[in-house]
Amino acid sequence: MLTKEQIAHRISKEVKDRYYVNLGIGIPTLVANYVPQDISVEFQSENGVLGMGPFPYEGEEDPDLINAGKQTITTLPGASFFDSAFSFGMIRSKKVDLTILGAMEVSENGDIANWKIPGKLVKGMGGAMDLVASAENIIVAMMHVNKAGESKILKKCTLPLTGVGCVKKVVTELAVMDVTPNGFKLLERAPGVSVEDIIKATEAELIVEGEIPEMQV
């Protein structure tokens, strides 16, 4: 199975030159650490940053530079800072090419639940509602099963929805899957993980066609 860092590394292969990319809280924030140096990418955070770089080394943190998850970050040459109204204007006007989000559940028709667990206190859904409503390309980085070993890749989400029919691709510690009109299609499997292992860990039906290659991470 992949680590969270390896999930982020695999997703970094989906980032293209000159993309504007929003990174959600959790695993997605790690993606900035793995983008190839030969491409130019602008990472945006909804708290008002454009031009985020990788995480700072220990001892080099600047408490005034944070992302939407309140983690300390670095910025690249040419980075800019602005208020939340301007930031969400960028998001709502579809200036972001790719959004990478974490999730607690994803359904086979591309619904995502990523903001509330029943019985847990939360401050609100944050910027996720705007991101899923505005983004045309959403990749989810998540764990395939929860701590009880139950699948989070579902026929239908059980938690409150963040967005409906918006997810295009899901990368977990076990697999890479496309969301198609016919459900989840298995594209790649984690090194050492069999197709049978993935099917067993997935509540939703999986489309499996031909030989499924291992992820390159």
Give the helix level as a range of percent: 10-25%
Query: What's the CATH first level?
Result: Alpha Beta
Provide the CATH architecture: 3-Layer(aba) Sandwich
- Indicate the proportion of strand residues: 15-25%
Q: Could you tell me the number of beta strands?
A: 13
CATH superfamily membership, which one? Glutaconate Coenzyme A-transferase
Spatial order of strands in the largest sheet: 4-3-2-1-5-8-10-11-12-13
Number of helices: 4
Summed over residues and divided by their number, the pLDDT gives a mean of 93
Biggest beta sheet summary: 10 strands, mixed
Q: What name is given to the CATH topology? A: Glutaconate Coenzyme A-transferase
Description:
This is CoA transferase subunit B. Belongs to the 3-oxoacid CoA-transferase subunit B family. Keywords: Transferase. InterPro entries: 3-oxoacid_CoA-transf_B, CoA_trans_fam_I, CoA_transf_AS, NagB/RpiA_transferase-like. It holds the Pfam family CoA_trans. There is one protein chain. The strands form two sheets. A ten-stranded mixed beta sheet has the order 4-3-2-1-5-8-10-11-12-13, with helices on both faces. The chain has a three-stranded mixed beta sheet with strand order 7-6-9, with no helix packed on it. A hairpin with a 3-residue loop joins strand 2 and strand 3. The longest helix is centred in the first third of the chain and has 9 residues. It is globular. The termini are close together. The protein is of the alpha/beta class. It is 14% helix and 24% strand. The protein has four helices and 13 strands. The protein has one domain: Glutaconate Coenzyme A-transferase.
